[in-house]
Amino acid sequence: MKHILIVTAVEVERAAVLAGLGQTSSDIDVLTAGVGSAAAAASTAIALTRASSLGSPYDMVVCMGIGGAIPGRAAIGDVVVGTASIAADLGAETADGFLSVDELGFGTSVIATTPIEIGAKIGAILTVSTVTGSALRATELADRHPDALAEAMEGYGVACAAAATDTRFVEIRAISNLIGPRDRDAWRIPDALAALAKAAATLVE
Q1: Which among 120, 140, 145, 162 is least buried, having the fewest CB atoms inside 10 angstroms?
Q2: pTM, entire model
Q3: Domain range for 167
């Protein structure tokens, strides 16, 4: 068994992952890192550094949680495994549209992942600082990222911490809603958490 760190944003996601894992293994640690890319990056970096200093570095970091799907590309209850984590709103707004940090020449907004086979949809996952809440924003993101299936708030931050330590990285999202105009009544968080638990069980297998 490889030494694996699973990173979630909030406790309810961690509980779902632990339920899927069953009896906790000493080879798998599940961390609640906090909401957003910055909190996730900081918490993950601390965990990776601590494990390395103790002589037991992690072989893989897996960011797991729920997320929103780009309409027409994934559905509520689906599980998405990322091919890349993309910082979708890291850049600059201009009169001619959005410019990514890549286009500005300040670095990269895309970090490739290590896709794994768990019977899920495969595609890029966007990391956003503000959850999409309008049809216009959803269309802009879909047009700008034709390979993206979903959005969440932590993947890119976890990916940055993993990349800094040359640790393999995976992002897995269970879909609770479609991005666009916010309709909390249409969200299916319990269904997404159940799908997340199944994904965790499959990951171990």
Answers
A1: 140
A2: 0.94
A3: 4-204
